[in-house]
Structure formats: C-alpha cells, structure tokens
TrEMBL record:
<keyword id="KW-0413">Isomerase</keyword>
<comment type="function">
    <text>Catalyzes the reversible isomerization between hydroxypyruvate and 2-hydroxy-3-oxopropanoate (also termed tartronate semialdehyde).</text>
</comment>
<dbReference type="InterPro" id="IPR050417">
    <property type="entry name" value="Sugar_Epim/Isomerase"/>
</dbReference>
<dbReference type="GO" id="GO:0046487">
    <property type="term" value="P:glyoxylate metabolic process"/>
</dbReference>
<dbReference type="InterPro" id="IPR026040">
    <property type="entry name" value="HyI-like"/>
</dbReference>
<protein>
    <recommendedName>
        <fullName>Putative hydroxypyruvate isomerase</fullName>
        <ecNumber>5.3.1.22</ecNumber>
    </recommendedName>
</protein>
<comment type="similarity">
    <text>Belongs to the hyi family.</text>
</comment>
<feature type="active site" description="Proton donor/acceptor">
    <location>
        <position position="184"/>
    </location>
</feature>
<dbReference type="Pfam" id="PF01261">
    <property type="entry name" value="AP_endonuc_2"/>
</dbReference>
<dbReference type="GO" id="GO:0008903">
    <property type="term" value="F:hydroxypyruvate isomerase activity"/>
</dbReference>
<dbReference type="InterPro" id="IPR013022">
    <property type="entry name" value="Xyl_isomerase-like_TIM-brl"/>
</dbReference>
<feature type="domain" description="Xylose isomerase-like TIM barrel">
    <location>
        <begin position="9"/>
        <end position="200"/>
    </location>
</feature>
<feature type="active site" description="Proton donor/acceptor">
    <location>
        <position position="85"/>
    </location>
</feature>
<dbReference type="InterPro" id="IPR036237">
    <property type="entry name" value="Xyl_isomerase-like_sf"/>
</dbReference>
Amino acid sequence: PGDPEAGELGLAAVPGRQAAFRQGLEAAVRYAKAVGCPRIHVMAGRVPLGTDRAAVAGEMETTFIENLRYTADVLSQEDMIGLLEPINNRITDPRYYLNTPQQAAAILEKVGRPNLKLQLDLFHCQIMDGNLSRNLETYFPLIGHIQIAQVPGRHEPDSPGELNFPYIFELLESLGYTGYVGCEYAPKGDTLEGLGWLRSYWESRGLQHGGTSKAAK
C-alpha cells in the first residue's frame, strides 16, 4: 500500500515511486509465502494531489504497465498470481487510479502476462457500472478473485441493498468459478454474527455448515 500516513494507497501506477513499489512487492511476496497465499493484490495507487487525472493518465498507465510486467516476472518465480482491483471513485476513493473492470481489462491486455488477473469486487463494480451479470460473463476469463459487499452500505450480503447475492452466487457457479469469494464488508456486529447470512444461505441450498451436502452424509 505504500505509505498510508503520506496519503498513499498503493504505488504500482504512481510515477517516481518505482523503487518503493519494488521494495513493497518483495515484502508482500515474503508475507504471502509465509502464510501460503498464492495471490497478491497489486494496488495501483492514487492520482497525485494537485494534479488533474486526465493530464497524468498517460504517464500513470505507462508506469503501471512497467511495474506490472516487473511484478509478473517476480511472481512467476514463486508460482503466484498478481491481482488488479478496480476501486470506485464515486464513494470510496475519488483519487484512486484504477476504477472500472473495463480499465483493468485494457491494462491487462497491454501487459499481456497470464499470471496477472482481475480482482473483481462487486461492491465497486456495482457503484461504477452496475450490469453485474453481463460484466461477470464478459470478464470471467480474466477473474482471479471475487469480493463481495452489499451496496450501498458495504455490510453483509443479506443486509438491505441493491444486490441479489443468491442469484449472483448461482451465476458464479454456472460460469464455473471455483475460487474463493472474499467477504470484504463491514459487519454490522461482530465477525461471527456477521457470518450468519452464510449459514442461512447454506441451509437454503440444502447444505450443512461448511458447504457439504446433507445427502452425501
């Protein structure tokens, strides 16, 4: 993430911070190896303060592509995947550089490395573009990780909001998604209480806690 106290939220697309980015990547790889996590979110970073987004877009894209190619080379030696996550600039972070799956897909195409994927957070995607079913179908070949939260409150999937998560989960199954779904939301209560929606969802599908079939038992 760079230096949060200095207002940074990632470095991969920030001109002039390439050396610090490489140091951060090296540390992230060490942490990932230690905990056995094969995926690393490569954070793009923010448009520098006092600059116009359009004026620096080209330089930031060039920096991003160079850093991502370097990242892909490093991660290929560790059998790891690098992930790009678009973060909405309407609510969460007005200055974040990478905002839409369309932008991320274009960057990934230019970089052209198979071990870099899209980290699609449906919270951010809904705020920026909506059209979740079509976006999931369109970008599914690029997706390396999914994250969820209800919109607009960013709470549990069964909290009041815009998204129908049982439908979305069935769509992911039909598309053949076999990866993890990250629950990146702010629980209304504590963590365990906040996972009650998952137990209810399993029961609605005829599954026991843990996602195993009752019939199989």
